[in-house]
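Quick one, tokens below:
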């Protein structure tokens, strides 16, 4: 964003961080991997796991929330790994990504990989399977993210890094703990009707129609459903960050 260069100070409101109050290169300059997920508690548990795996922490260690000045998101860091919560849905993760990408820019980070991890609804898979997303698709199975900007509809690509998908699949084979597949991830605008659930407050379709829709999704290559992947993929592509 060329406008950032004209700003005296860039305040990342929802992180409670700012270039005028924090030394971004000192705090985040060594970051190489960013993992994002919905729940703050889950991302804290994740950073504790990563710390132990990297030999940088152990049982009983505490990991302070870098964004403790706000209750919007939580952020934790161990070595070159940053763990950030993003809440639920496209609007919430979009706000977080704008500020995260700016944070990485101000910190002068390079060769960054961002991975979104989290639970999702599987289609045609055993529970507990891991889906590595090839591309995010909308609820009509198109690989695109549609957004209205200044009254105009803008469509952005949602393809994700193919080489990273292959690397992650190879890691899964070496670990051998999870059934892992590469497939498309469908990103919906809500948890209930958008995903064809029958237990929401409103439901104007029947089970047969639901199953027909899910079969179409499966036949198109969809293997799981969630609510954040489309804008995640679009923003990674636009900012030149390797994402998965």
């Amino acid at each position: 964003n060329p406008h950032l260069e004209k700003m005296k100070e860039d305040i990342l409101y929802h992180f409670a961080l700012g270039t005028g109050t924090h030394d971004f290169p000192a705090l985040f300059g060594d970051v190489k991997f960013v993992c994002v997920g919905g729940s703050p508690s889950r991302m804290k548990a994740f950073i504790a796991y990563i710390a132990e795996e990297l030999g940088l922490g152990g049982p009983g260690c505490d990991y302070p929330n870098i964004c403790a000045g706000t209750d919007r998101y939580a952020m934790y860091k161990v070595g070159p790994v940053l763990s950030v919560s993003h809440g639920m849905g496209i609007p919430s993760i979009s706000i977080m990504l704008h500020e995260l990408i700016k944070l990485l820019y101000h910190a002068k980070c390079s060769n960054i990989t961002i991975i979104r991890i989290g639970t999702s609804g599987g289609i045609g898979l055993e529970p507990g399977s891991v889906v590595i997303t090839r591309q995010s698709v909308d609820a009509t199975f198109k690989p695109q993210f549609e957004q209205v900007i200044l009254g105009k509809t803008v469509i952005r690509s949602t393809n994700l890094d193919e080489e990273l998908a292959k690397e992650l699949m190879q890691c899964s084979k070496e670990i051998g703990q999870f059934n892992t597949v590469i497939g498309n991830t469908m990103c919906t605008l809500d948890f209930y009707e958008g995903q064809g659930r029958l237990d929401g407050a409103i439901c104007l379709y029947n089970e047969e129609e639901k199953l027909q829709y899910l079969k179409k999704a499966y036949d198109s290559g969809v293997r799981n459903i969630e609510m954040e992947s489309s804008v995640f993929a679009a923003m990674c592509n636009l900012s030149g960050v390797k994402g998965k």
